[in-house]
Amino acid sequence: MGSLDGKVAFITGAARGQGRSHALRLAAEGADIIAVDLCADFDTVNYPQGTKAEFDETVRQVEALGRAVVGSVADVRVRPDLESVVAAGMERFGRLDVVVANAGIYPGQGGTRCEAFVDATDVDLIGVMNTVAVSLPHLQSGASIIVTGSTAGMIDGATDKLGPGGSGYSWAKRTIASYVEVLALQLAPQMIRLNAVHPTNCNTPLLHNIDVYKAFRPDLERPTRDDVIDAFPAMHAMPVPYIEPEDVSSIVAFLASEQSRYMTGLNLRVDAGAMLKPAPV
Ligand SMILES: NC(=O)c1ccc[n+]([C@@H]2O[C@H](COP(=O)([O-])OP(=O)(O)OC[C@H]3O[C@@H](n4cnc5c(N)ncnc54)[C@H](O)[C@@H]3O)[C@@H](O)[C@H]2O)c1
């Protein structure tokens, strides 16, 4: 018996990375899945986003676990499109129990007109709020919402100094932390929970790209994975370069389940102790 037998989970950014891992983990716990991904790139982002082929592979893997999926290509920035996605899921499954607002981008391409700031905040903050907004009308007592932040929003100046994209990313993630506390209080009387997970560096394409590498090795023109792998662990208290998507999915599955039924308004770090370290002088 799984901890989510008979439940339905809506997950954004499900083509790959943490979103795919969350979909597989929640499906393994018994949930049917409503999945969304944009499957398109951004001018301001220096690494490719998930593709339709990757999204189809997520669907295939969920179905291989014996669960049903309603998968749609849609943009979390466009609330009416997300409304249609959830409506299609409700028509198929008749209920919604778990929401995982995970889709996110790290736009490192600056541009003096701050397009990167706009894209970062549109996807990483407005996209999360849209995902929650279109879900709320369908949620009943016992439902659980999990949104994805980042330790980049908790470490002072983590990415703020990296131009408009980094600044927008940090601000969006920082704002998620207060959003969770404020909205969770309003949802609590209806027994609907809202929590955030805040990963540190996680082994996905959002981490493995030249813009992030340059933040760790500003001395190099075109740093590669080999150039940064020794620098990564320095930000953690535990000596690891990054965490895996499955490490975040374990927490998402716990927050989605009845086991955490009285936990709400929390900002949970999955950060290998990064936030315990004193700030560099
Ligand atoms: N990887 C890290 O180091 C790290 C650290 C902290 C927080 N995070 C956060 O974790 C979440 C998941 O990121 P990931 O690491 O799996 O990265 P990823 O790039 O592998 O996956 C993100 C997915 O979101 C999709 N997406 C992007 N914009 C979208 C949009 N507008 N609408 C719908 N889908 C969209 C992409 O196509 C992609 O499949 C993000 O919110 C990210 O900010 C990541």
Descriptive tags:
2 domains, binds nicotinamide-adenine-dinucleotide, 7 strands, alpha/beta, 281 residues, 8 helices
Plain-language structure description:
With 281 residues, the chain is α/β, with parallel strands linked by helices. The model has no long low-confidence stretch (mean pLDDT 95). It has helices spanning 17-28, 52-64, 79-93, 115-135, 163-187, 210-216, 225-228, 245-256; strands at 8-12, 32-37, 69-73, 96-101, 139-148, 193-199, 267-270. It folds into 2 domains: 8-203 and 245-270, 3-Layer(aba) Sandwich (Rossmann fold), CATH 3.40.50; 208-241, no CATH class. Strands 3-2-1-4-5-6-7 form a 7-stranded parallel beta sheet, with helices on both faces. The chain starts with 7 loop residues before the first strand and ends in an 11-residue tail after the last strand. Bound molecules: nicotinamide-adenine-dinucleotide. Nicotinamide-adenine-dinucleotide (NAD) binds next to helix 1, strand 2 and helix 4.
